[in-house]
């Protein structure tokens, strides 16, 4: 196939399942996938349970599979396509099911920023699944929002992991997003953005353009490097976004230890993240006409997880509440892949009801 894509034998397990179906194999399932810059997760959920217990918290998982990056902007189209197919095949294999049992698939993938991105990924999926399978492709922020609202699309979500994005949607379907354009275009509240600024601070300190910082010894020791000069080679040897973002804990540790440079990097990141939420909320008027209305704000991503003293997520919420006192922070009880599966079921249900009345 074009772009060097090959899928190998990822579906070879189906011949065995068809010959010897497990006695407890589910009759119908939905797949939910959360594809990020660091990893990709796919879950398989029984459709019958969603019909009988639509508001259960959380729904049971038949299987869960994990693979690498599936953001085509980061690893290229061929690698992203292979990762997506691999992780879906693994989830179905673990569940004892196969593609014929699938009723709907929802992919929430980072890097899906335009209808052309959606269509590209749909073109990858159509040859994989039987024609009866409903296929949905969204940005990963949509799945993340659904993970906090248990499938209901209303409110705002802030994702801050390797990358960052704010996304919101109203009950009547109006959408808005801010940030999420990648590190080159200024996602400085992201894990990559935080770590990249720390690396820059080290180089500036080394050549005299900036003050000395604890970041130098902390990060050089972590990377087993002996000098800031070696840091240049390390940085450009592999430009993977996740590799750079993995240094965020060192920045937090230095800030907690009193380093002013590290502290400023985190303060700036908090402001950037809060600003992206503010932009979305204002564009959609999620806070109501008086600015005090209640709306959910789902918080997702490793950057927002609590630390000992320098809690980025807590600081972001504090900034948001200054502008929108009615914002209701939600830490999801389920992962975004489950949110994607709930979306698959919701979309499927709406289509079925629509067909009944058409």
How would you characterize the overall build of this protein?
This protein is α/β, with parallel strands linked by helices. The chain folds into two domains: 2-150 and 335-357, Nucleotidyltransferase, domain 5 (2-Layer Sandwich); 183-330, ATPase, nucleotide binding domain (Nucleotidyltransferase, domain 5, 2-Layer Sandwich), CATH 3.30.420. It has 14 helices and ten strands. It has helices spanning 13-19, 47-52, 72-75, 77-95, 115-125, 140-149, 191-207, 215-223, 228-237, 241-245, 248-256, 260-284, 312-323, 336-357, and strands at 29-35, 40-46, 63-67, 102-109, 134-139, 155-160, 164-169, 175-179, 295-300, 327-330. The strands form two sheets. Strands 3-2-1-4-5 form a five-stranded mixed β-sheet. A hairpin with a 4-residue loop joins strand 1 (29-35) and strand 2 (40-46). Helix 6 packs across helix 14 (336-357), helix 7 (191-207) packs antiparallel against helix 12 (260-284) and helix 12 (260-284) packs across helix 13 (312-323). The longest helix has 25 residues, at 260-284. The chain starts with 12 loop residues before the first helix and ends with a helix. The model has no long low-confidence stretch (mean pLDDT 91). Pfam families: BcrAD_BadFG. GO terms for molecular function: N-acetylglucosamine kinase activity. Belongs to the eukaryotic-type N-acetylglucosamine kinase family. This is N-acetyl-D-glucosamine kinase.
Q: Using the coordinates above, name the CATH class of the largest domain.
A: Alpha Beta
Which quaternary structure do these chains form?
single chain
CATH superfamily of the largest domain: ATPase, nucleotide binding domain
How far from one another are the termini? 39 Å
